[in-house]
Amino acid sequence: MRVLHVITGLGVGGAEQQLRLLLRQLPAICDVVTLTNPGTVAEGLTADGVAVKHLGMAGNRDLSALPRLTRLIRQGRYDLVHTHLYRACLYGRAAARIAGVRAVVATEHSLGAATIEGRPLGAGVRALYLASERLGTSTVAVSATIARRLREWGVPARRIHVVPNGIDATRFRFDPLVRTRARTLLALPQDAYVIGGVGRLVAGKRFDTLVRALPHLPGAHLLLVGGGEQEAVLRALAARLGVAGRVCFAGECAYEGAGGGLDLPTLLAAMDVLASPSADEAFGLAVIEGLAAGLPVVYATCPAVDDLPPGRAPGAVRADAAGFTDALRAVRDTAGGRLPVPPAVEHYTIAAAAARLTAVYEAALHGTSPVLGKQVPSVLSDSVTSGVSAR
């Protein structure tokens, strides 16, 4: 099976990192086209032996990208095209159909309640999305929450299949020596209580909630992992509140580092609690990664946890914005070192995600409904969350 993955960009991000992990597991010959920004993940894919091509798209309305992408798909003689992220789904589905590829799968990574990849969900965005979706064979949702939103939009349930994100949990296993080294490199006191936040520094992630909590948590430090336009705003807020010396901005980091660098598992090792104050998440991958690192987690919303039966993530505490500081204080006051890795992490392995996605591929190629194996049962039945029904 020859598969072309089309993605909007390959900078550091959850969808981009997820693609790299999946390509290591999928039983297919896979190439990748990035419409824009062949960044850090492109370099990683190339190091893995994956052919990566940059389409050089100038912007959302660069219609010249469509014939270029169509030509590339024809030349590659691909059996299936798999698109990722909004712009790539719009152009990739159309190009695949024009090129004569009939098996077209799209993954919906970032459909929030009010935004998609940070852009407001206006009527125009929704209409364009639905028109494009009809060009595909099936749409993959990374959580049952996204599957429900797609159905509410009007996407037929039989076209929606849940393939949750996955991680390589062994990479996040806690090592006290790594913790010591990371704190040394970050100039964090070895005995400090460190609150961590992982994600793009944008308004929707609400990391200002964590900065505002610091004056009420004496001695605690904040480690923010990620980059974005809100960094200057967060720095100014920390200075205004008198806590600038207790906030560490680590910047963007790779999922996997080389040569002893500060990759994501290393930075998680430096933390004592992971905080995710975002009120609109499509999956919540950072929460699962934090749990895999043995961290207690305080979160506002996380479909990856909330879609599972109660008790699967005993170290995760849900809190609204008003109660976030109190929740962080309670976790600190009861801190007892690293926690056992909970069952929720076992549910989200990258091997299981690849197996489920392979079933979706086979069904798309043969015009059948995929049989998606169960892992830990979710709150919704598999017949609902997978979107599988009689045709």
Ordered list of secondary-structure elements with their pairings:
Layout: E1 2-7, H1 14-23, E2 29-34, H2 40-47, E3 51-54, H3 65-76, E4 80-84, H4 86-98, E5 104-108, E6 115-116, E7 119-120, H5 123-133, E8 138-141, H6 144-153, E9 160-162, H7 176-186, E10 194-198, H8 208-213, E11 221-225, H9 231-240, E12 247-251, H10 264-269, E13 273-276, H11 285-292, E14 297-299, H12 303-306, E15 316-318, H13 324-333, H14 343-347, H15 350-366, H16 382-385
Parallel strand pairs: 1-2, 1-4, 2-3, 4-5, 5-8, 8-9, 10-11, 10-13, 11-12, 13-14, 14-15
Antiparallel strand pairs: 6-7
Helix pairs in contact: 3-4, 4-5
Index terms:
single chain, 391 residues, alpha/beta, six-stranded parallel β-sheet, 15 strands, 16% strand, disordered C terminus
How would you concisely characterize the structure shown here?
It is built from 16 helices and 15 strands. With 391 residues, it is of the alpha/beta class. The chain starts with a strand and ends in a 6-residue tail after the last helix.
